[in-house]
Amino acid sequence: MIKTIFKFFIFLFLIKFINCQKDKDLNFPFPNLLGEFDSGYSYFPMIDNLKLHIRCYTNKQISKNDGENLLFDSGLPLFSTAYGNVIEMLLKNNTMNKLKISNACFFDRYGYGWSELSPVALNSKQFIKKLYASIQTIPSINNSKYYYVGWSYGGLLGQTFATLYPNLIKGLLLIDSSDIGSLYDPKWSFDNITSQIDFILQSVVPSPKEYIEQLTDFGIITLKQGWMDSNTSLPKSCVEKTQKIILNSYDNYYLAAAQELSQFIPNAMFLKSQYEKIPCKPLGKLPLVVISSNPVEEPDWYNRQIEITKLSSNSIQLNSTDHFVPINQPDLIIKSIEILLNKN
The AB hydrolase-1 domain covers which part of the protein (predicted)? Predict the structure, then answer.
């Protein structure tokens, strides 16, 4: 009789737990980026009481020591879902085998996607050290060397990683990357950054979610601010998950954007100080591929991409149609990865 009662309570507990999980799923989706049949595996390493989400797609035919390991970082304020098309292309047509890739891992910086929000804004050095510690907890990629794929703000962080851990980075793919030139760009002046942060903290975060949805309908919050409408050319699962995360009740997404904006110029200054230690070709012979957006639309930005290419004597520059290369030109990302891997 006691066993029967005990089993009954266990049954009630499991039903309650399952229902809680279902309720949680409605508000915050699981990170199977491509949908139900996504073959990736998500890790949540905890470093200094902060959880980072890293989703890895592992090629079981090539060990981490015999193949290449890639880390993918997104632009501000996007996260791993923005690489959905790239992930699909890596998994199709035996691409990872052809390029001898062991692992392709896509992470969400703190506060984005499935990563916890830091209680305080982290500078680039602090973040990279936590990222390094995080990947060392994952058996499929720890104690390895990496190719860092950094898009926009993620490109600035990729460059920082290469200066802090030069013996761990085998190459950089910088996609329309932010750089130390931001220090001289009027768009990134103190007043402009402050106004962006104020808009997020005073107008967006306190507002009801219905108001946020109206801002997206009116085109005030767009892909540039991370919002993906139903016509975004990504796997449906990526679009839906992005929308749920941006509209969730925790506001982590917006607060993370405000935190990173507050550190943008200090991070560019830190990278500049790193490069000043080696004035000529500070990245040496590191394999480097730079993807640059249309020079006609933003010539100053394009010229800065040329300067990034000069950081290494082993570099090449390719052109894209716009800034959102992983979404709109995933084939160019795959082509660039192939070029990068062949440079070693």
Answer: 105-332
pLDDT at 101: 98
Residue 24 lies in a domain: no
Determine, yes or no, domain membership for 174.
yes
Phi, psi of 156 (to 5 degrees): -65, -40
pTM: 0.90
Residue 38's alpha-carbon distances to 85, 91, 109, 237, in angstroms, are: 13, 10, 21, 10
Which of 142, 72, 149, 130 minimizes the C-alpha distance to 105? 72
Residue linked to tokens 């506001």: 251
What is the pLDDT of the chain when averaged over all its residues? 90
Output the domain CATH number for residue 133.
3.40.50.1820
CA distance to 10, 26, 35, 169, per residue, from 19 (Å): 14, 11, 21, 44
Q: How many domains does the chain have?
A: 1
Q: Which two tokens stand for residue 253?
A: 């997404």
10 inside domain: no
In the block, tokens 């767009």 appear at 222
Report how far residue 186's alpha carbon sits from residue 177's, in angstroms, rounded to the nearest whole number.
17
